[in-house]
Amino acid sequence: MDLDTQDIFHPPVKRSITIAGHQTSITLEPLFWELLRTAAEKQGVPINALVAQIDVQRLDANEPPGLATAIRLWLTHDLLGNSAQAD
Q: Which residues face 43 on adjacent strands?
């Protein structure tokens, strides 16, 4: 990962993403954008596709969190070695 200490504490950054043909914006800290990019590369899919898969999983939850929260939780779960691939 290419982030230094200054980047770790950088404020959240808003980016536009297309999920299932719909444009949306997601606000994440640079650290989470980098982790998301790395996870997508590891799975061999574009970031948009991974976010769409995470979105489907989050909507299946009993109490779905917001998308940015779901992404952070999915990435943390993945880092802990508890996530195979987003289905």
A: none
Angle between helices 67-79 and 30-43 (to 10 degrees): 60
Q: Is the pLDDT of residue 84 over 60?
A: no
Q: Which of 63, 11, 60 is nearest to 32 (CA)?
A: 11
Are the CB atoms for 2 and 33 separated by under 8 Å?
A: no
Residue pLDDT, tens place only, 35-71: 999 999 999 999 999 999 999 999 999 999 999 999 9
Q: How far apart are CA 20 and CA 53, in angstroms?
A: 10
What is the Cα 19 distance to its own chain's centre? 12
**Residue closest to 57 by CA, chosen among 70, 46, 44:** 70
Which pTM was predicted? 0.85
